[in-house]
Design goal:
It is a single chain. The strands form four sheets. Strands 2-1-3-4-5 form a five-stranded parallel beta sheet, with helices on both faces. Strands 10-9-8-12-11 form a five-stranded antiparallel beta sheet, with no helix packed on it. By secondary structure, the protein is α/β, with parallel strands linked by helices. 26% of the residues lie in helices and 29% in strands.
Length: 274
């Protein structure tokens, strides 16, 4: 007799317990063989549990405390052991309106609108079941491409567009205390998120600002500053080369700084040979 197929497993990330329970009950009706392996209430826990459990399907609320569902999915994409298990099918659960949901027009990543309607859930379940049965889940490259688009959609994963920034008022610690410096954006080589601050690196100095990287990105020219990691924006003209290590990870070497910068899998497409 052929072996009994292993039931698919799902992870639900939803910060409102009643909504998480309602989704789990609705899934039990629409997809009886699906096993909900875990339910978590924040993005950091979602990443941790997904890496530990490696489910076939992820249901992520977009807006969660600490780390959004989009940011959690980006972190998971970077940390996922691709040589050991295929990247899960992603379904975002959201209360955003139809305008924001235009970003979901391609089919690599699906969505459910709150409150979840049975007919819409059945459509999503049908698509997921078909893909899993055929072994034809969306290719990681397609999923990552749509995830990038979602992360850079104003009002969804990105801050609304803002006027271009030309001068930065940044802090620098000295022996005499904290000084405020006016740093031209034209001198900045890269920005890097660090706890509650963002590091501002020029060729010769390091400064700190409190503006979140997401808000900062909305004020920079995307052609000049490339997002290469969820926590790093680098000036394209400052990049000397990109090197792939034995584990397949990309790192950037800069013209005027000695440190290497890690490149997330989401942004590895930027460094393919022409």
């Amino acid at each position: 007799m052929p072996p009994t197929p292993t039931p698919p497993r799902a992870l639900i990330a939803e910060d409102e317990p009643l909504l998480a329970a309602a989704l789990q009950q609705a899934l039990a009706r629409a997809w009886p063989e699906l096993r909900v392996a875990a339910t978590v209430g924040d993005g950091l826990s979602a990443v941790r549990e997904a890496l530990a459990l490696r489910p076939e399907v992820l249901f992520f609320d977009i807006r969660m405390p600490g780390q959004s569902g989009l940011d959690a999915a980006a972190a998971l994409a970077d940390a996922w052991p691709a040589d050991e298990a295929p990247f899960p099918a992603l379904v975002f659960v959201t209360a955003y309106d139809q305008y924001a949901l235009q970003a979901f027009e391609t089919q690599a990543v699906d969505y459910l609108l709150k409150p979840v309607q049975p007919a819409r859930l059945e459509k999503t379940v049908h698509k997921l079941r078909q893909a899993l049965q055929r072994g034809a889940a969306p290719a990681p490259e397609d999923t990552f491409a749509q995830l990038r688009a979602l992360l850079h959609t104003p009002g969804l994963g990105a801050a609304p567009a803002a006027p271009r920034l030309h001068m930065i008022q940044a802090m620098r610690q000295t022996g005499n205390g904290t000084q405020i410096h006016f740093v031209p954006v034209a001198e900045v080589l890269y920005f890097e998120a660090a706890d509650k601050y963002v590091r501002v690196l020029t060729a010769t100095h390091e400064y700190l600002i409190r503006t979140p990287l997401k808000e900062l990105a909305a004020q920079l020219d995307p052609a000049a500053f490339w997002q290469v990691h969820r926590g790093t924006l680098v000036r394209a003209s400052a990049i000397a080369s990109a090197t792939r290590d034995e584990a397949g990870r990309l790192h950037l070497h800069l013209h005027e700084r000695p440190e290497r910068l890690a490149v997330s899998r989401l942004y590895a497409h930027l460094f393919k040979a022409m």
